[in-house]
Design goal:
The structure holds two protein chains of two kinds.
Chain A: H1 11-36, E1 38-42, E2 45-48, H2 52-58, H3 61-91, H4 97-107, H5 114-124, H6 131-138, H7 149-177, H8 181-189, H9 194-222, H10 226-231, H11 243-253, H12 257-285
Helix pairs in contact in A: 1-12, 2-12, 3-7, 3-9, 7-9, 9-12, 11-12
Chain B: E1 4-12, E2 23-32, E3 37-41, H1 48-56, E4 63-68, E5 71-72, E6 83-86, H2 98-108, H3 113-126, H4 142-154, E7 161-165, H5 173-189, E8 193-198, H6 201-207, E9 210-215, E10 218-223, H7 225-230, H8 235-240, E11 247-250, E12 252-254, E13 257-260, E14 263-265, H9 269-276, E15 283-287, E16 292-295, E17 302-312, E18 316-323, E19 326-333, E20 342-347, E21 353-356, E22 359-361
Classes of the chains: A mainly alpha, B alpha+beta.
């Protein structure tokens, strides 16, 4: 028979947390959902629009372009920062004061606020007083981030690499340090080449930190806002206008609450989807494959 | 073929060692013969792992030579010595299957694939790994992983010695004896020198034909398990081997008698003579708990003792008694009549050993 105690008062204990989460996440998100299906004309004038905003957002060619740009940017910086981060971690000194010194030096860019990073690079790339801008001009290279979209792109990528590769490097460094010495010793006895040691010991042992690094860097770069905004303002033209900036222009600049709410939700879902697919794929790869005939 | 000779070997982790205490390995000479099953036994920190790493080439000794078949190999890295090593924690290559793990050392030597496969299958068969060959090594149990790391040493034809660094530490107790038997089997099947580092005397004596007992960076005795038990060459061996270890008494020669404090000991004339001529201050007599007889009646050969407690351990009892303020252990056979608070202990003459400055001195009285 059912001898469970039917006392549901325990749920009351969950209540404070529920209230907290409701105010911090659920209610704001639902407000956005609410806006995304309405056309708000004034404080008391709004009507239901259904999926109209979503359709128009998905068909907006400016947003589509920003989306493609955003994907390209995230892929480019991941393709550079992950290998570079691993490489730096591999050559970092392992012990002694050199290790601490290098760690501190490497961490410095991470401590600088986004806006400041943008400003630093904005000045750095100026043709008249910036070291890089001036230097390149002196070398006879026609470098100008306000005029050439290619230059603007390269600079933003460079800036992001400078700012965020240290995070990848630090994560990898900690991952490498946690590999027991016996693995390297066994590999020597097995006559493994340097490459084999990297491929079969270091890289597999780094999988977990690399998953974190890729996810963090993907989410971060996909939401990048302050740095390109300060550096190029999204220009020249709209060549460096990424999704966040497009959204801000719409929501704050034009007060288009409905469309920008719909857009926000799409934005959020894309990040969630990509992260989920990536994580699941990696985790699935580590499982045993179904047995195949013979070895 | 490999006969491993250590000549005048010493090692210190300090750059400029100042005293004996700075040495992880004190100067020593030792020979491991081809095809032997050896154990290096000692407590933690006695230098046994250091010695093993010197043999495998992971460490370069600060003094002396390591010779493989008479060839000096000090500077040769492990990959150029024909050895394999199994570590305390199983080292496997996570992303590879068991088959690829076993094939790894062969593939690193560019062995053609048609020769890799039969060799791997053969080794897998010996180690009972055949059903697991297609599995990812990462998902195996600890003992399976340890077998895989052992297997990587066995696939190579050029391996003449396998070094084990406490390989059963992470293995479940029920599986330990299985793996130990497997090791024995492998040793009998291949003509490979095996050196097994452990701090467990049972593990050492079931695996090895000869055991080297290490203490404070020195091999204090090298012998068969039986020799270690019956004729410990050093007080440490006496204390470390056996359970419980040997009883020791610091004695001196006074008034024509061997005195343990205020208690004269009834010992054989030969032993008394040896103690009288010892010419040292550190003289000890050692006796194993197995060779102390406890009785309730006094005889000429026994000394009065105060019984502290008796512990029943099933097949035998362990009696603790106090003599001259010092605690002794004696082993009573099953069915021994009960003893009271006061009893008499007789030390079996043939098994009383003399130690001068901690090393055994043969007296010929046995």
């Amino acid at each position: 028979m059912n001898n469970k105690v039917s006392n549901n008062r325990a749920w009351l204990l969950v209540l404070p947390m529920l209230v907290l989460v409701a105010f911090s996440a659920i209610i704001p998100l639902m407000t956005v959902v609410n806006y995304s299906v309405q056309d708000v004309l004034g404080p008391n004038a709004s009507f239901f629009t259904g999926t109209e905003w979503f359709k128009s957002m998905l068909n907006d060619s400016a947003l589509q372009a920003a989306f493609v740009r955003q994907i390209a940017f995230s892929l480019v910086i991941l393709a550079i920062q992950i290998p570079l981060g691993i490489g730096i971690a591999l050559i970092m000194p392992k012990r002694g004061w050199q290790a601490s010194a290098v760690l501190i030096l490497i961490t410095l860019p991470l401590l600088i606020p986004w806006n400041v990073v943008g400003s630093i690079w904005q000045i750095f790339t100026r043709g008249d007083i910036g070291l890089m801008g001036w230097g390149l001009r002196e070398l006879g290279i026609d470098y100008n981030i306000t005029r050439h979209s290619g230059d603007a792109w390269v600079t933003i990528v460079l800036m992001d690499v400078w700012h965020w590769t240290p995070l990848v490097a630090m994560l990898c460094y900690s991952g490498l340090r946690s590999i027991p010495e016996a693995y390297y010793q066994a590999a020597r006895i097995d006559r493994a080449s340097k490459w084999a040691v990297f491929r079969y010991i270091q890289l597999p042992k780094l999988t977990n930190v690399l998953v974190i690094a890729v996810l963090l860097r993907f989410m971060h770069s996909f939401m990048i806002y302050a740095e390109p905004f300060v550096l190029t303002g999204g220009g020249p033209g709209s060549s460096t206008t990424f999704l966040s900036q497009a959204l801000t222009t719409m929501a704050v600049g034009q007060q288009d609450l409905g469309p920008s709410a719909a857009f926000s939700l799409i934005y959020f879902l894309v990040i969630l989807l990509v992260s989920w697919v990536f994580y699941t794929t990696i985790m699935h790869m580590q499982k045993d494959k179904p047995p195949q005939g013979g070895a | 073929m490999a006969e491993i000779t250590l000549k005048g070997l010493a090692h210190s982790y300090a750059k400029t060692p100042s005293g004996a205490a700075d040495y992880a390995i004190r100067q020593m000479d030792h020979i491991w013969h081809q095809g032997g099953a050896y154990a290096l036994l000692g407590p933690s920190g006695c230098g046994k792992s250091t010695l093993l790493n010197i043999i495998s080439g992971l460490l370069e000794p600060s003094q002396g030579d390591v010779l493989f078949d008479g060839q000096r190999v000090n500077e040769l890295p492990p990959e150029e010595r024909n050895i394999a090593q199994v570590f305390q924690f199983p080292v496997i290559y996570d992303t590879m299957t068991v088959f690829d793990n076993l094939a790894f050392p062969l593939r690193n030597m560019n062995t053609p694939e048609y020769r890799v496969k039969p060799k791997v299958l053969e080794v897998a068969d010996i180690l009972d790994l055949t059903p697991l060959l297609g599995r990812k090594a990462k998902n195996l149990t600890a003992d399976e992983k340890q077998k895989v790391s052992m297997g990587r040493g066995l696939v190579r034809d050029d391996v003449t010695a396998i070094l084990f660094d406490e390989p059963l530490t992470v293995i479940d107790p029920q599986l330990k004896w299985k793996l130990r038997r497997k090791l024995k089997e492998i040793h009998e099947r291949f003509n490979i020198t095996m050196i097994y580092v452990t701090h467990d005397q049972l593990e050492a004596s079931t695996f090895a034909d000869r055991i080297a007992v290490m203490y404070e960076g020195q091999v204090v005795q090298f012998g068969t398990p039986r020799e270690l038990f019956e004729r410990p060459a050093h007080t440490f061996v006496g204390y470390f081997i056996g359970s419980p270890g040997m009883n020791f008494m610091a004695v001196e020669y006074r008034d024509d008698q061997v005195m343990f404090g205020v208690q004269p000991l009834p010992v054989s004339p030969a032993l008394r003579h040896a103690v009288a001529n010892a010419n040292a201050t550190n003289i000890k007599l050692g006796i194993r708990p197995e060779f102390i007889t406890i009785s309730t009646h006094h005889t000429d050969e026994s000394v009065p003792v105060e019984v502290a407690n008796v512990q029943d351990l099933g097949t035998y009892s362990l009696l603790t008694f106090i003599l001259n303020g010092q605690t002794f252990k004696a082993r009573l056979p099953e069915g021994h009549p009960p003893v009271g608070k006061a009893a008499f202990a007789r030390f079996d003459d043939a098994h009383v050993a003399l130690y001068i400055d901690e090393f055994r001195v043969e007296t010929g009285h046995e």
